Structure formats: C-alpha cells, structure tokens
Amino acid sequence: GEGWGLCDDGERLVMSDGSAALTMRDRDDFSVLDTVGVTAAGAAVPRLNELECVGGTVWANIYQTDTIVQIDPATGEVLAQVDAAGLLSPAEAAEADVLNGIAKVPGDGDTFLITGKNWPWTFEVRFVPA
Fold first, then answer.
1. Confidence class for position 1, pLDDT limits 50, 70, 90
2. DSSP category for residue 105
3. Where are the alpha helices (DSSP H) in 4-120?
4. CATH number (domain holding residue 92)
5. Neighbours of 96 (CB within 10 A)
6. What pTM did the predictor assign?
7. How many domains, in total, are found in the chain?
8. Which of 2, 20, 43, 87 has a 20 to 30 A CA-CA distance from 81?
C-alpha cells in the first residue's frame, strides 16, 4: 500500500497509509509485523498522515484537518488530541495548505516542531493537557 507517514519506535517501523490503521514493519526487511486500527471513543480515526514516534506512543496528524492525535500503538486507542487551528493568521492560512509536519525536538520531553505545506513558519510547541 501507499506510505503516508513513517516513524521508528526503536524496535520497528510504524507506517500510515491514509486509512484508520497503523502498520508495524520490520526495520530490516520491511515485512508486515502487525496492523492496528486507530479509534477514538470507539470510532475509527481515518486519514492518518505524518507520524512521529515518541516515548512508546505515536503522534499523527489527521490529513486535511488541524488535528494531531497521540496513539497507543499497542491498542490503537487515541490517548490525546491537539487542536492546532489558529497557528497561522487568516492571511497566512489563505496562502497555505494543510498541516502535515510533526517532529519531536531531541532532548526536550514535550516540545515539538509542527508545520504544513506552504506554511511560512515552523512552530515550536508543547503539547500539554487542557
């Protein structure tokens, strides 16, 4: 299938393909080890895109939205949801495309960089409970 996002959890690769599933792959030969469906409160979460593996969980943006979710890769359950709307001004948003970049800042427990296609900025953010 298509690969939309890929991250390394230290033991295996975790891949998204735009569906509501994460596919676990062998780091050496890329063979499929497991597939898990991603759900939030029992409902499937489709359009999983860019991935970032952090501390035993997977962060993923939902394609064509301003939403980022934290996923337990063992169960597929969404543990947290981030609303990234409002980072760009209305004028900047009019010239930009979708959110699709997530990167963990090394050495800092909860700091991430997020951006999107044709975004004029990369934002350094912390995901904290509301």
1. low
2. P
3. 90-95
4. 2.130.10.10
5. 17
6. 0.93
7. 1
8. 2
